[in-house]
């Protein structure tokens, strides 16, 4: 929707300009002018690119979701490289960052190439479908306030930023429940609850380990790695348990042997 692109551009531009003003330098006014100009040009570019990508497949199978997680992690790493070297004016860090950035770029290109050639592999199970639905809703709801929530941690009130993030996640979960569990019976709903609990526990443990076992210069790198790994483990648990449950429910009931 075009209005969402313009609303997000306005939100991001305003947030960046506020941060620029708080971190005032002799170049602040120049930076604000540049950000205002890009805030007008970027939505037009995004809308043009979106019109070229009308046949994008729906991401719903396990391989597609895993490739999505890899792509998000790789793209985030490249953004952090630009952030560390160009946006913070630390070009001296570029030599150390460049080899890792090149490897990450190769991973990103390979993941997108593979994703474009990955078939759907049939209909996903209930838990995996609900995870995909929740992700789509969360991304749509986060699209506009994402940068304000992120910089609210450092330049605003962290508690309000945290609450805003949790509310957006909760709204995405509500929509996922409403759409994903429509038509599911009580027994399948109980099994789904157990699946999601197991997926969240396994994904949370993997994400926590990803943060605790590695020391990062910027906390965003740890959050990005933890989120990608948490998502990958959670969808793997959902896919495996979906397959097991669907086979059990589809199996014909055993009949007692006739008495002789």
From TrEMBL:
The keyword RNA-binding does not apply. The chain crosses the membrane at residues 33-50, 62-83, 95-114, 126-149, 155-177, 189-214, 226-245. Keywords: Membrane, Transmembrane, Transmembrane helix. This is Transmembrane protein. It comes from Actinomadura montaniterrae.
